[in-house]
């Protein structure tokens, strides 16, 4: 039997609600019930259906999900290329729903960097690698950096990503993997708070894909850039500490990995654990594999235990 809360309990809860920090207050990226509806030929498609996502500063994380689940829609919104229909989205203190056209242009040039899947879309074909990297700095005025300083920074970035030898080559004189590493340098040129990459290894073989991933890791570790990578590539998803799955336009489950040292042998191993997202209304989406394995549908039985909640298949018909 549940006991009724007393007046004092209710007063305490109301005060706690008032002093509770706003959702995502300490996150670099915060999406709060994000909705994006596309209308095409009188048909509405809900690409994002109330998506919640928080990313902390300095994270390197992967977004995975089936085709059509809304990954690219989310990336385009975070990149400032598209606007949500409803909800809230903030990146590095920029409100993505309230930006003017001028703010948006500055946001795309200085706050976010972007790497696309198509290697040809990331670089200008008639410029060398070094010129491609210097271009975003020139376009933004690069906060007082002189021409020489820009060229030096371009070279530093190329060297950091192991493509210093490509500095004077045009894209068609480089391999796909080299082009993508140069593309990462271009995206980092203006020191963005966030680097977004949509299937950056999609056109590459697995060995080259690993090198691209190593380049993202270098950028994350050496420059502290927050990086979000959309990927189908299980190998890439398995390399990051945090993988968030998107399903039907919402974040559904999340896998966190951490290193653990075996007390007996001293060996380090990676331990992963799957989490489900609990929204503020208390809604929880269970992974389809779990519910299918136990034949759960429509209704499940619940029990509150001391330190967990137990979920069983509906047993009401048996009783
Ligand atoms: N401009 C658009 N007009 C109409 N519908 C769109 C538009 N862009 C995306 N959609 C629809 O929104 C849904 C989500 O698409 P989105 O491209 O975000 O998925 P995705 O997870 O990136 O898929 P993929 O892995 O295949 O790239 C899909 O049903 C798609 O058809």
From TrEMBL:
InterPro entries, per the entry: AAA+_ATPase, ABC_transporter-like_ATP-bd, ABC_transporter-like_CS, ABC_transpr_LolD-like, MacB-like_ATP-bd, P-loop_NTPase, SpoVT-AbrB_dom
MF annotations from Gene Ontology: ATP binding; ATP hydrolysis activity; DNA binding; transmembrane transporter activity
PROSITE patterns membership: ABC_TRANSPORTER_1 (PS00211), ABC_TRANSPORTER_2 (PS50893), SPOVT_ABRB (PS51740)
Ranges of residues in domain SpoVT-AbrB: 273-316
CDD domains named among the record's database cross-references: ABC_MJ0796_LolCDE_FtsE (cd03255)
Domain of life: Bacteria
Example of a GO cellular component annotation carried by this entry: plasma membrane
ABC transporter domain ranges (all copies): 32-273
Keywords, comma-separated and alphabetical: ATP-binding, DNA-binding, Nucleotide-binding, Transport
Protein name as it appears in the record: ABC transporter ATP-binding protein
Organism of origin: Streptomyces spiralis
């Amino acid at each position: 039997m549940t006991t009724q809360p007393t007046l004092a309990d209710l007063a305490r809860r109301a005060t706690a609600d008032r002093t509770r920090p706003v959702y995502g207050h300490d996150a670099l990226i915060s999406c709060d019930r994000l909705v994006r509806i596309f209308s095409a030929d009188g048909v509405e498609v809900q690409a994002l259906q109330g998506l919640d996502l928080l990313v902390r500063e300095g994270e390197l994380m992967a977004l995975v999900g089936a085709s059509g689940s809304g990954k690219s829609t989310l990336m385009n919104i975070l990149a400032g290329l598209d606007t949500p229909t409803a909800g809230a989205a903030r990146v590095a203190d920029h409100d993505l729903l309230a930006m003017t056209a001028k703010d948006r242009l500055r946001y795309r040039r200085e706050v976010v960097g972007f790497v696309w899947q198509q290697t040809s879309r990331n670089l200008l074909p008639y410029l060398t690698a070094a010129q491609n990297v210097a271009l975003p700095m020139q376009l933004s005025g690069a906060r007082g950096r002189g021409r020489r300083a820009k060229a030096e920074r371009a070279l530093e970035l190329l060297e950091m990503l192991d493509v210093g030898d490509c500095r004077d080559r045009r894209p068609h004189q480089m391999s796909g993997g080299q082009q993508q590493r140069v593309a990462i340098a271009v995206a980092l040129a203006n020191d963005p708070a966030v680097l977004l990459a949509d299937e950056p290894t999609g056109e590459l073989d697995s060995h080259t894909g690993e090198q691209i991933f190593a380049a993202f890791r270098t950028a994350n570790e050496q420059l502290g850039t927050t990086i979000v990578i959309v990927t189908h590539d299980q190998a890439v998803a398995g390399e990051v500490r945090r993988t968030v799955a998107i399903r039907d336009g919402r974040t559904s489950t999340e896998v966190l990995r951490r290193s653990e040292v075996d007390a007996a042998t001293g060996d380090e191993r990676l331990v992963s654990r799957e989490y489900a997202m609990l929204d503020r209304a208390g809604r929880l989406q269970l992974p389809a594999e779990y519910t299918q394995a136990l034949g759960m549908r429509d209704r499940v039985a619940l029990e509150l235990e001391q330190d967990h909640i137990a979920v069983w298949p509906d047993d009401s018909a048996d009783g």
